[in-house]
Amino acid sequence: MPHAKSKPEVAVVMSTYNGARYLEEQVESILAQEGVDVRLYVRDDGSTDGTVEKLERWASAGTLELLDGGNLGVTRSFLLLVSQVAERHPYVALADQDDVWHTNKLLRATTRLSELDPSLPAAYCSEYTYCDQDLVPRGRSHLNRIGVDFQRMLYENVTSGNTMVMNQLLARAVSRAGLEGVYTHDWWVSLVATAIGTLVFDDFSSLEYRRLSNNASASGRGAKEVLANRVRRYVAGDELGLVTRQLEKLRDEYWDRMPDDRRRLLAHFLEDDGLSKARTPGRLRQSERDEVALRALFLLGRL
User: Fold this and answer.
1) What CATH number is given to the structural domain containing 66?
2) Per the domain annotation, does 230 fall within a domain?
3) Can you give the residue ranges of the Glycosyltransferase 2-like domain (predicted)?
4) Mean pLDDT, consecutive 10-residue segments, the chain of 303 residues?
């Protein structure tokens, strides 16, 4: 009698912060994933609203493994989580605390990843359905409009961490680079994947993305709100410098593992003058308006 095919084992890592209100619904959707063996790891980042007490009860019941917390911020918290599970599981998925996953989310992701060259670090990402706080659908994301590759990942993140699944090679590569110098964890994972391996972007809504006022990104909001968010962060603030620092870290950590064409492209944006960068052929951003804005920043010497 033939042996039944084993289910893919996926470590789901979640960083929580004052998420008690919606946490149970998300945990249930993660544990209800079909066709995969889920191991849930949670790290709390300093909650004060009862989140930790909920997590401790679930940990005592064996529902999840609760890792030591302390406030690091969302990016460092997620990277630390990845480093703690990368050697233990063939796949690692990132989870927000307030979404609801579709039941085939992880099976679809691991199936796509299993079809790739097993010698390459790889990431899977998808679209999502954004909802209000009561989980009423408000629309579907269109993050990937013209394709995603290394050049288009350098200055724009179109991958949403809550849809992301990594194979073990990528999780190991990310964890070995440490926590310093990373701007955002999901952008960083996708940059590393496209620099030394590959990224699969699935035109599929894998979850219900609950949009709250304290969400880290502006995805799913109105055009005016997104524009105001970008002006506040990139023009008035110092976040353009963090984008450059992230590219410098990419060079410092992975230069020897990158193909020649990607090394040349990265060196071009880190070393050449603004006019040369503004003349780079090919697209760098998904929308034409954002493309014009980026090339203006090159000419102004802001990037």
Assistant:
1) 3.90.550.10
2) yes
3) 12-120
4) 76 97 97 98 96 97 93 97 98 98 98 98 98 95 97 97 98 97 98 98 97 58 52 63 97 98 98 98 97 97 94
